[in-house]
Amino acid sequence: HFKHTYTVRVKYCLERIYICAARVMTGQEYDVLFQNRYASLLNATFLRSLPDCLEDSLGREYLFRFLVQSFSGDLISFYERFKDFRGAVTESERKQIGSRLVMEFLTPDAKRELMISQDIKNKIMIKWKKIENKAKEIPADIFDPLYEWMITTIQDNSWLLFKSTLENLHISV
Amino acid sequence: MGGCMSDSQDTTDRNVEREIEKDKKQDTRAHKLLLLGAGGSGKSTFFKQLKAIHGEGHNDREKEGFKRQIHGQVVESIQLLIRQCKTVTKDPLPGIKDEDDEPFGNDDLDDARLSNSLKVEMTETEIAQFKIAKEFDQSCQYLLEIHGSRSALTEQLVTHVKSLWNECPAIQAMFEHRNKIGIPDSSAFFFNDIERIGRSDYTPDHKDIVLARYRTTGMTEKEFHIKDAVFKVLDVGGQRNERKKWIHFFDGVTAVLFVVSLTCYDEVPFEDVTDLAADVTLMNSMLESIKVFEDTLDFECFQKTGFILFFNKADLMQEKIKRVPITNAFPNYKGPQEFKPSVDYISKYFLSLNRVPEREMLLRFFFEYVLFVNYW
């Protein structure tokens, strides 16, 4: 249960406690043990922009925790599936992941159907059907409009709040 | 030394416990108000208003965020207007040679929702009014090539938007059908003021912030202290897929603030927007609001919870009622096509949906984002 409900604040505080404990127990500085993570956490350079945050593994961790906390976890599920699709090497792999993506996020009334305009949805669905029917090569950028929509949605709804939350935690700790 | 440390430890522990107790008390004292309503009803606008009036207002960073949203709304709206004009007139999109954008043959499409987006039943004369003249090709191409709608408004972008909005009759004609294609009313305000909002030193004022439209996802929570009372207000997304999340917020609710847009009786819900062929009498956001309201009233946990029904956009309704009767959503309405009797009918209709007489139901109305107990 805890795994699904803890907040960004709890995550941040536990991480800081862990840093202190690791220092006491090992006699070494935490930055020696986990250099990149430590630097990233203290400098929070990933807060510069949303794309920076998504590129940074620690930034992603914290942002995803925040999105779960604010009931926008569906965006993370989409992002992970999208990254899988973009990283697919073979055509069959791309087709398999693409089909799942369409089924999970674009099919009407699907549990995780994205709140995207019919305009964009139809355009992608038509392209996808064409690919399936005519066995055409799958363009790697076919789902990019969904990614752009995801970025806009996070920007509009969560980014500033997330940034303020982390900055406030930095100040208060 | 040990004793000293233990004493200081005890003091710290006691302080922490005191803090936790204080937080707990505050939490139980807070009235949890849940903002509900269908998509586009104005829940987040109400939330923004609360923040401006009873909260700490909007700081510079938030204003920067609103600026991005406003710029995004302008780009998104103008792109949608161009695309819809091109769809209706079956004109190719300028500069776009992608074969995948070509329409399908009937044999390729078995999904009615998809095929619906490609057909518009209109006379030749009706279609002609949406034909964008050749002289605007460059503007259309420039605007359609913008990817990611949250681009800053450059000088060039402002010029193209201004030219299409002010000089292209097809765009104006399409905007008249904004209720069917999901373009917010407030986009006209931003189009008209494009030079001001496109300036590099532009900072959104209160009106701009209230008029900025974006779709809420997830949940945002904020505490407001009004006189001696503490209110915890929860704002949630209203679109269909967002409503699946509502159940998570129902615990310990003091009152539900249910927001209804008075102008949505001829507007196609966001999820059903396709093109001008949409029949607003079959599905419109008012019918959706009624359905959502009924479903919300039926929840077991809300049987004893007070409801405040907020009828929003009353000022816009005063204008709309002159052109569009409410019979789109209320076919049994036989009264005059006037503001007061129409609003009376709508509010009574909503109140009649409450089947628990002891449940408290209050009505409130918004005029130009100002709250009124009555609308006369």
Structural class label of chain B: alpha/beta
The total of beta strands of chain B comes to 7
Integer count of domains of chain B: 2
What can be said about the biggest beta sheet of chain A?
Answer: none
* CATH homologous superfamily grouping of the largest domain in chain A: Regulator of G-protein Signalling 4, domain 2
Helix/strand order of chain B: HEHHHHHHHHHHHEEHEHEHHEE
- Tell me the radius of gyration of chain B: 25 Å
> What is the class of the largest domain in chain A in the CATH system?
Mainly Alpha
Indicate the percent of residues in helices of chain B. Answer: 40-55%
The quaternary structure here is heterodimer
Summarize model confidence as the mean pLDDT of chain B. Answer: 86
CATH topology of the largest domain in chain B: Rossmann fold
Binding site for Mg(2+) (chain B): 44, 216
Pfam family, one (chain B): G-alpha
Region (Disordered) (chain B): 1-27
Keywords (chain B): GTP-binding, Lipoprotein, Magnesium, Metal-binding, Myristate, Nucleotide-binding, Palmitate, Transducer
In words, what does this structure look like?
- The complex is a heterodimer of chains A (173) and B (376).
- Chain A has 173 residues and is mostly helical.
- Chain A has two domains: 8-43, no CATH class; 46-172, Regulator of G-protein Signalling 4, domain 2 (Orthogonal Bundle).
- Chain A has helices spanning 2-5, 8-26, 30-33, 35-43, 50-55, 57-69, 73-87, 91-106, 118-134, 144-172.
- Chain A is elongated.
- The two termini of chain A are 26 Å apart.
- The model of chain A has no long low-confidence stretch (mean pLDDT 85).
- By secondary structure, chain B is α/β, with parallel strands linked by helices.
- The longest helix of chain B has 30 residues, at 60-89.
